Amino acid sequence: MNPFDLTGRLAVVTGARRGIGRAMARALAEAGADIIGVSANLEPEGSDIEKDVTAAGRAFTAIRTDFADPAAVRALGAELAAASRPVDILVNNAGTIRRAPAAEHPSTDWDLVLQVNLTAQFHLAQAVGAAMAARGHGKIIFTASLLSFQGGITVPGYTAAKHGIAGLTKALANEWAARGVNVNAIAPGYIATDNTQALQDDPERSQAILTRIPAGRWGTADDLAGATVFLASDASGYIHGTVLPVDGGWLGR
Regarding the domain with residue range 10-245, which homologous superfamily does it belong to in the CATH classification? Predict the structure, then answer.
């Protein structure tokens, strides 16, 4: 048997409309999973990620949810937990970033980033994870960050949230590992997406980042595919509470 085969499983991927989330959802579909894609601006029909998933021969359902809205997130969690077809894999990837020096960082930016990147992640994992634990199996994957380990520059809210994701991953794993639920996280390195466009457009910062990456290149969203399938599959059955860097060697430098 192929331990990476996800045929017949249902995966929910948040932030699935573009970037890392789209690549994760596509990889899970290609491994055999049906996909529920969730995003604040996801088209009800005809989205790029829907085309990716159906091209892989899998079923796709779109759900539009604004992760800045606590009530909407709670409603989504309740809906998924009570659905007739249980969720086998939850990829908690939705996120946002706001950049400003710490001394000038608006409290509205802080509150938004903590809500979207940490509080919403907990509430969704809480609802879906409780249902998984009751059934005795499931996989939860958070998207962490290099800033789960480091401090960053001009992103205090994002750094705090991503440190929180690393801790939350371990906390949930401690409670749910014995109940058949694997909770882990992936920490992408510097990936060329919309979220890092400001860094890519800054010649000095971009070059400084590139110089430090042992692999000698910025990552692509598809570089997250293998780690996602691994942590969603039976191959990772004895892995709990791990934050797996996919960073071109950045943290080892």
Answer: NAD(P)-binding Rossmann-like Domain (3.40.50.720)
Order of all β-strands in the sheet with 181-188:
60-64, 34-39, 10-14, 89-92, 138-143, 181-188, 243-246
Q: Residue 72: how many CB atoms within 10 A of its CB?
A: 15
Q: Which residues are tagged catalytic?
A: 158
Quick one: residue 138, left, alpha or beta (phi over 0 = left, psi -120 to 50 = alpha)? left
Which residue type occupies 62?
A
Q: Establish how many alpha carbons lie within 13 A of residue 107's alpha carbon, considering only the half-sphere containing its beta carbon.
A: 0
Domain residue ranges of the chain, discontinuous segments joined by +: 10-245
Record the pTM. 0.96
Give SS3 for 28: helix
pLDDT values of the chain reduced to their tens digit, one per residue, 253 residues:
899 999 999 999 999 999 999 999 999 999 999 999 999 999 999 999 999 999 999 999 999 999 999 999 999 999 999 999 999 999 999 999 999 999 999 999 999 999 999 999 999 999 999 999 999 999 999 999 999 999 999 999 999 999 999 999 999 999 999 999 999 999 999 998 877 888 888 888 889 999 999 999 999 999 999 999 999 999 999 999 999 999 999 999 9
Partners of 13 in beta bridges: 37, 91
Q: Quote the tokens at residue 110.
A: 């802080």
